[in-house]
């Protein structure tokens, strides 16, 4: 949350990453069902690096909580509902925990499972209003499920840029300075080894963040006078200057259909060879 030139303070990296992640989830790549190709790379000395490292870990824990919680709620709230609608008592006695022993026990079991009181009473009230069937939604851990759709951090490759300087600090057990983006001032000092351990635990838990070795990448830079390489495309085969891109190639197969309906194999082979050479040059120069 660095100061802004117009006054106030920045809301920080993570708030904007969540916006971008939500946009990537909504905008399918190429207008099809293919997932968006979005890459997020954060420097190891960024003030928000600790939150970024654990971002996806925490979000996946939320998915686990949604899945587990939804199933427990369905299991424990169904008896509450059935205790109300299958009651043989008269009138409102069926919905009174003091007068309906079966409801009282079902509510007690639900509370033991930490289901909020408001949800227990909502089920009772729905039964009181005459509902005879209630859908209890449950969620699963499928990567394209509604549970994953409700959390952030799932629509990009999240990676960090690690310098040799940081790795030396890890090796020596030293501290590591997190610096502001606008003024380069030290915002916070952290233990380099603890930060590196955090990276390892997060990558083990959820496969992110990935690692890009900033110093080594720039030692191999083919155009160093034009600026540093600070990121890559999502697949990481293209590493080059800011505002450049890994260009993909496509071919319109209809153009190779001849008047007699035959496919121009020779022409297609020639096109493929040209595209392969051009794209290979693009990658090799990066």
Give a brief outline of the structure.
Helices cover 45% and strands 10% of the residues. It has 286 residues and is mainly alpha-helical. It has helices spanning 13-26, 49-85, 101-112, 117-128, 146-149, 164-172, 192-206, 214-219, 265-284, and strands spanning 39-43, 157-162, 175-179, 186-191, 210-213, 231-232, 239-240.
Structure annotation, total helices: 9
How would you state the average pLDDT, rounded?
91
Structural class: mainly alpha
Radius of gyration: 28 Å
Kindly state the percentage of residues in helix.
40-55%
Strand order of the largest sheet: 1-2-5
What is the rounded distance between the termini?
34 Å
Anisotropy-based shape: flat
Q: Give the DSSP E fraction (strand runs of 2 or more residues).
A: 5-15%
Order of SSEs:
HEHHHHEHEEHEHEEH
Strand tally is 7
| Largest sheet geometry | 3 strands, parallel
Regions with little confidence, pLDDT below 50 for 5+ residues: none
The domain tally reads 3
